[in-house]
Amino acid sequence: MKQSMTFIPTLREVPADAEVKSHQLMLRAGFIRQNTSGVYSYLPLAQKVLKNIEQIVREEMNNAGASELLMPAMQQAELWQESGRWYSYGPELMRLKDRHNREFALGATHEEVITSLVRDEVKSYKRLPLSLYQIQTKFRDEKRPRFGVLRGREFIMKDAYSFHATQESLDEVYDKMFTAYQNIFTRCGLDFRAVIADSGAMGGKDTHEFMVLSDVGEDTIAYSDTSKYAANIEMAPVISTYEKRSEALKPLEKIETPNQKTIAEISTFLNVAKESCIKSILFKVDDRFVLTLVRGDHEVNDIKLKNLYGATVVELASAEETKETLNCVPGFVGPINVSNDVEVVADHAIAAVVNGVCGANEEHFHFQGVNIDRDAKISQYADLRFIQEGDKSPDGEGVIKFAKGIEVGHVFKLGTRYSEAMDATFLDENGRTQPMIMGCYGIGVSRTLAAIIEQYNDESGIVWPESVAPFQIHVIPVNVKNDAQKDLSDKLYAEFLQKGYDVLLDDRPERVGVKFADSDLIGLPVRVTVGKKAEDGIVEVKVRKTGESFEVSVTELYDKIKQLLGN
């Protein structure tokens, strides 16, 4: 491609509203432009990278036994109502009506559509297992789009679905998909981890996220410092044990604590350790209120609370709901003298608190001398807190450390969550009707593009891995008005193309400094500069990744390029 014939609007200044490196560089290097909040146009360079990523995805998915199809982005509400997600998915689902007042959703995901498609066509176990995938634009009305294409309202995703007659068949395909994902992200050149995860609104069990390690990641990975254990912080179980302090139990005493609402404030005000404070938070778990207790130095993990109850929705009770339910404002809530209508659950660490402090369910008052088994009614103890750095690793090897990660892929064992709700059944070998067992496998293609840039950049711009680079070679004549330079550049460009390389020729009548700056910004793996020694058949080769540059004769150039890039 000749650079004068394509569209690469580079910028010299860093855009003020771009917070992370990938967003800054994709704007500066002319890869994307914003249309509206969370919605971007992918310009020619970005489109080429996306196609390279998609090609890797297609090859690995096909190798895993999946077939590609394409489903509609606009989905009728009836399908989502069948699964129950029309009511539970939340405001991220973009909903609309047609001229006949029929309700639709723009596809945030495609479990409902694929399930309806397969249930209408597959009736026998003989047609199973079946794995299907697509690469398509998805829509989610993010409350706060940010970081460019890392969190947008419109994005490109590969989603795959598998259907099975047996759990063993699902396990086998899940393992194939897991391996395919490892291959995909390895081929993209990414430093990533596969971590135990929560399925969220998707439903199902046994899930893994594929996290690209990055300081700008919005997810926290908990990993062992000595083993291969890794999990999303939401899913990492706490195996720590707690011992009660050996001291005499004090009587329960209500004390005035004016305007002391937070654990930090009450700890300072009463001169007690945070570990001796009991944090009490009221949640609405589906249609019930649950008061959840954790130690003052811990945080409630709402995912664990959701899983404890097998709930669909878990959310913090509002101030109004707290006042109505506990006759108290947040900040002074506690588990003592709570109505029987409110279930009280506690993290394991609470059982070891001796002579602690908690809210008195009365504004500006707390209890001290709290001993929970004596003073309150706990319905059950469970692991309800977030794991912390320094805790024991859940696999028993080493201690937990944290890292930030960008989620680029997620694999789920959905089980019969959708097939039962939507009546997707088959006849087994005994002629009995059974629900299909499902798996689901997603990759954020446009997010992978940004994640690669987060890991591959320097002070001058992007440094593309060869496997996904928009072009392999950047040919730059120093002066396009010089006949020898122009002729040699055109000759090399044509011959590189003939040999199967993807080449960008900078034929613009720009100053050489501008060309070099743009070249470094765009970040193609190899740059070939045709300058003053063109008449002697000598060019300069620069490797973008290492910064190494050297002169080489045109007669030896192709062997050198082959050595640098492969065939």
How are the elements arranged and paired?
Blueprint: H1 21-28, E1 32-36, E2 39-42, H2 44-63, E3 67-68, E4 74-76, H3 77-83, H4 85-88, E5 95-97, E6 103-106, H5 111-121, E7 130-139, E8 154-164, H6 167-187, E9 192-196, E10 205-213, E11 219-224, E12 230-232, E13 253-256, H7 263-270, E14 278-285, E15 288-295, H8 302-309, E16 314-316, H9 319-326, E17 343-347, E18 356-359, E19 365-370, H10 372-375, E20 380-382, E21 400-415, H11 417-421, E22 425-427, E23 433-435, E24 437-444, H12 445-455, E25 457-458, E26 461-462, E27 473-477, H13 483-498, E28 503-505, H14 512-522, E29 526-530, E30 538-543, E31 549-553, H15 554-565
Parallel strand pairs: 3-7, 15-17, 17-20, 27-28, 27-29
Antiparallel strand pairs: 1-2, 4-6, 5-6, 7-8, 8-24, 9-10, 10-21, 11-12, 11-21, 13-19, 14-15, 14-16, 18-19, 21-24, 22-23, 25-26, 29-30, 30-31
Helix pairs in contact: 1-12, 2-6, 2-12
What structural class do the secondary elements suggest? Answer: alpha+beta
Tally of separate helices: 15
Major beta sheet summary: 9 strands, mixed
Radius of gyration: 29 Å
For the record, the count of structural domains works out to: 3
Q: How many β-strands, per DSSP?
A: 31
Instruction: Output the CATH topology of the largest domain.
Output: BirA Bifunctional Protein, domain 2
**CATH C-level of the largest domain:** Alpha Beta
In whole angstroms, the N-to-C terminal distance is 19 Å
- Quote the beta fraction: 25-35%
Mean pLDDT score, rounded? 95
Shape: globular
Q: What is the helix content?
A: 25-40%
- CATH architecture label name of the largest domain: 2-Layer Sandwich
Poorly predicted tracts of residues: none
Full CATH superfamily name of the largest domain: Bira Bifunctional Protein, Domain 2
